[in-house]
Amino acid sequence: MDQNRDAHPPATRIGIVGYGNLGRGVEAAIAKNPDMAIAGIFTRRDPAQLQPLGASVPVHGMDSLLRHKGAIDVLVLCGGSKDDLPWQSPELAAHFNLVDSFDTHARIPGHFAAVDAAAQAGQTTALISAGWDPGLFSINRVVGEALLPDGATYTFWGKGLSQGHSDAVRRVPGVAGGVQYTIPVPEAVDKVRSGVRPELSTREKHRRECFVVLQDGADADAVRRAIVGMPHYFDQYDTTVQFISAEELARDHGAMPHGGFVIRSGNTSASSKQVIEYRLQLDSNPEFTASVLVAYARAVHRMHAAGQFGCKTVLDVAPALLSAKSAAELREQFL
Amino acid sequence: MDQNRDAHPPATRIGIVGYGNLGRGVEAAIAKNPDMAIAGIFTRRDPAQLQPLGASVPVHGMDSLLRHKGAIDVLVLCGGSKDDLPWQSPELAAHFNLVDSFDTHARIPGHFAAVDAAAQAGQTTALISAGWDPGLFSINRVVGEALLPDGATYTFWGKGLSQGHSDAVRRVPGVAGGVQYTIPVPEAVDKVRSGVRPELSTREKHRRECFVVLQDGADADAVRRAIVGMPHYFDQYDTTVQFISAEELARDHGAMPHGGFVIRSGNTSASSKQVIEYRLQLDSNPEFTASVLVAYARAVHRMHAAGQFGCKTVLDVAPALLSAKSAAELREQFL
Lengths: 335, 335
Known about the structure:
The structure is a homodimer of 335-residue chains. Chain A has helices at 2-6, 21-31, 85-93, 108-122, 136-147, 163-170, 186-193, 202-205, 220-228, 246-252, 285-305, 327-334; strands at residues 12-17, 36-43, 59-61, 74-77, 98-99, 125-127, 151-157, 160-161, 175-184, 206-214, 238-243, 258-269, 272-282, 310-312. In chain A, the strands form three sheets. A seven-stranded parallel beta sheet of chain A has the order 3-2-1-4-5-6-14, with helices on both faces. In chain A, strands 8-9-10-11 form a four-stranded mixed beta sheet. Chain A is an alpha/beta fold and 335 residues long. In chain A, helix 2 crosses helix 11 (285-305) and helix 3 packs parallel to helix 4 (108-122). Chain A is globular and about 60 Å long. In chain A, helix 2 links the parallel strand 1 and strand 2 (36-43). At the A-B interface, helix 2, helix 4, helix 5, strand 13 and helix 11 of A face helix 2, helix 4, helix 5, strand 13 and helix 11 of B. Chains A, B: Substrate binds at residues 157, 182, 208, 258, 285. Chains A, B: It is an enzyme of class 1 (oxidoreductase). Chains A, B: Homodimer. Chains A, B: Belongs to the diaminopimelate dehydrogenase family.
């Protein structure tokens, strides 16, 4: 495989399945990687209505996907974890190498089993749950524990826009629109960074900030109470609710920033504390997630070429496989 | 291999070659990992004079190493990159799986070639240049570039004790003892974190702080000038020199803290900056480096069992191989 990589093989041809924020991000990410090319965008909508970023990018109906099999090295699935990926990933893994961003943590073992059966049968390579969490954060949790077995791991999210919590806010009666930001509590982050391994409650780790547009005539106090008391979503957190106009919502809250930290602190001896921190600050959550999927698509293409079939996760991928550079170049330039 | 891992195989038996700070750190790290065991410590000194941390740990002369071959799964080499590893790693890779921490960046390709030839011939697996830089920082440089190809990577070191620069200070005529700390310049770190991709000179990134004990009758001003003007080591930096007593040196500067940051910032679109940061804060540089070597020894043992012979680096190791847990446990608990 190294020899192939040194000889600069033809571009990895990516099929984009689904064209929302994530699909657009994948298209943008491929444009930044000269060794990758777009085979096509596949959509359940009317292909003629879709406006890709690149004017020359072919758009096809989902039902034509199998006919393009010979022109596609890896599919990047850009659908949702609730309704699309649970059936799409196993179905498509029977025929294609693929990467998905399945992020329903509790259902990952079941999703893995379904995709693995399909990929083993089809002799394809299918990597699930790529992205930053699950994904890059998962890697740092695993490696952190392996390096510092006598320690504790902390994950903080934010400051960032939470899609799930924003949806919950928008379902409250009287709410015309709104967004929710998850914010790590600085005192908790500082305490974790100091290496003392604090016990932290849910409330001590994150707070939640909502910006809400009221429907005409809605009762602000009732809306606020409904939000801050909402079970699971908000009742275990300190939550602030600010009411704003529809214009302010559109002007100030249209971006999708996110990020967070994984911190592992541990002792290598009684007197030596060691702290490992991995941190992301993202202006655009979907564009960054898309960039992760594209790098893992490169790795999947290589793993398939090396005969490594079946379902994989980011935990199975050696760092060198993510890079467009050859193993020798990497050793010379990055070690 | 997964099946073996799920069945909890016998411990990985480690031979420690060399017993300075790093060797002691490896012994301490193995004690924190229930799936690892010490086969023995091998030294060029008189074995009877060595005091391992664990009273029951066997100590042998280096010349007996080959006789213990059947009792050792992986050697962890704890010698220096200048005098020991260039000949030791190729020589021992002919007979043993091993991990070394070779850190002379410019000589890594040559070292790789020598070790690879020996390991291919001996059908062993030999991982070179493990640790945190080269090592964990290298991984983050490679992955950062792969995820954000339109971007820039910055490495900052410190605050930490630099062995090489401390040695240089101690060679200055008139110096009885001393240490040197490398310190990242906060303004530079902040600028990099903001995602603006600044061009930074050597002087703008780090400053150097020396604590020096003078010999009786030495000229403080001459010593200071000799240090701050020393080519390569200090002349390109803002360096401060503080004179202290031998007691203060022993009391306040005996620890070996270190650490640093790898920051990748890049754009996924014109309006979206993304910043990835990997940070280490280490109370003890040798103990942490030792913990990294031990985790990679676990991976080397598995790669050898899977028939992956030859020279490897941290860039070739999938995260799951570093963990004592099975692939299924990792997917369930960490993804």
